[in-house]
Amino acid sequence: MFHRERPEKEYTPLYAKYGLGTTAFSALQGGLLTGKYNDGIPDGTRSPPCPCSCGATEGPQGEELLWKVRLLSQIAAGASFLPDLLNSGRNPLALAWVAAHRHTSTVILGVSSVAQLEANLGALEVLPKLDAAVLARIEAVLGNHPQEPETYGRPPLDQGIL
Predict the structure, then answer these.
(1) CB 109 within 8 A of CB 75
(2) Residues in the chain with pLDDT values less than 70
(3) Is residue 123 a contact partner of residue 96, using CB atoms and an 8 Å limit?
(4) Which UniProt keywords apply (predicted)?
(5) Which runs of E-coded beta strand occur in 17-147?
(6) What is the enclosing helix (H) or strand (E) of 51?
(7) CA angle at residue 36 from 137 to 51, to 5 degrees?
(8) What is the dihedral of CA 95, 39, 45, 101, to 10 degrees?
(9) CA dihedral sign of residues 116, 4, 106, 84
(10) CB 34, CB 92: distance < 8 Å
(11) CA atoms of 158 and 9, how far apart (whole Å)
(12) Contact present, 126 and 81 (Cβ < 8 Å)
């Protein structure tokens, strides 16, 4: 959700040209999108979220990420099809959002317990229920939809290269 430039922009020409899809890993940003780091690093956590993959949870960038996670949790809590799934403490909305992308072939789930696996599989129930209104609210929170670069009349770089 937070790192979209490559899969949604840079790789787009490859999807159609070669019939490829994306295999998404760390879709929960090392646990950040589950909300477990909203109030600091909990006891018993294997490791804090990786600064290189999802940004530190401290400082201005970290505060912004945690703010977005809280807003996404509010969206999930307000969706009538999610409350039972949220009782597990995990947020299947993020996984369903990644899986809903038209170029996603596979979402790799990283879990350390059966409970986490069961919670993550809840995304399968959420996925068919994501509608345009929920997706638009998520986009508004994320505010990072990749934009096409200006070509100033030149053809796209992928033409004739691959």
Answers:
(1) no
(2) 1, 29-42, 44-59, 67, 75-90, 149-152, 155-162
(3) yes
(4) NADP, Oxidoreductase
(5) 22-24, 104-107
(6) helix 51-54
(7) 90
(8) 10
(9) positive
(10) no
(11) 12
(12) yes
